[in-house]
Write the structure tokens for this entry.
Amino acid sequence: MFLEYMQVVADDLADTSAECVNNVKEAVNQVESLLNNPSSISVTRIFNLCDSIEDDLDNTWDVANFFESITIPFAAIAQYNNIPGTKTNLDDLCNIMNDKTIGTEIYRLAEVNRLYSGTRCLNYSYDYVVQYLKDPSKITSGGKHFTIYCLIN
């Protein structure tokens, strides 16, 4: 994801709630801290990952894709925020990120991801994403997958 685009997303979040932006930043800091300082708290369990990220820290592509995966709900929902017919908006995400009853910020970020992706495990593998996007059966005319498919083939 482009850094400039993520700044636009952060600005959109700030328009919704400055506290929300701070909580997202803190959640990402907590993830980084747990990955850099292994403890009994597992990022894999918190985010319901298909594979253990703690065992995959040497693969920079996978780690980068993991961080994109856990922040993509904000970018995707900001893109279509408050468009009629959308089920979730930034207010919904910020309500979760600001809800202390869920737990610390990292648990709130995981809850945002469950809202966005459902309860299935999150496959953060870079190779999985590339193979998925190269699969012609996943292509929709004019959609994101079509554009990415053209770029990587």
